Amino acid sequence: MNQTRNKLALFGVMSFGVSGIGFVICLTLLLALVSASGQMTPGQITLSARGYKVHGRQRVDLSWNGATSNTIDVYRNGVLIATVSKIPGFYTDNIGARGKGTYIYRFCNAGTQICSKQVPVKFGGGG
Question: Tens digit of pLDDT for each residue in 77-87?
Answer without folding.
Answer: 999 999 999 98
